[in-house]
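Hello,

I think I submitted the iron/sulfur cluster job twice by accident. Can you confirm which output corresponds to this input? Input:
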Amino acid sequence: MINCLMCGACCIAYDISTLDKPAGVPCEYLLESGRCGDYDRRPAVCAAFKADELCIMLSMLPLSERVRVIREVYRCS
Ligand code: SF4
Ligand code: SF4
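Support: Only one job matched these inputs. Its output is below.
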């Protein structure tokens, strides 16, 4: 299992329809720390999301670059 680094990139990169959040836009609940500001009530899709190898590979990059690569690799539009 890969531990989440709590970088917040996935909370920007993906579109989350239950939150009406388009891809590439920070979730309204995302804190500056990279943590979720509504963790206990986050949507099921967020609760089920798992960190993967890409999270580790991108960990040294700035947040904007992480988001860009995630969107490119997983074709988030
Ligand atoms: S991009 Fe990966 S490491 Fe960063 S918050 Fe999301 S799951 Fe965690
Ligand atoms: S609800 Fe929380 S976990 Fe889900 S995208 Fe927003 S900040 Fe991230």
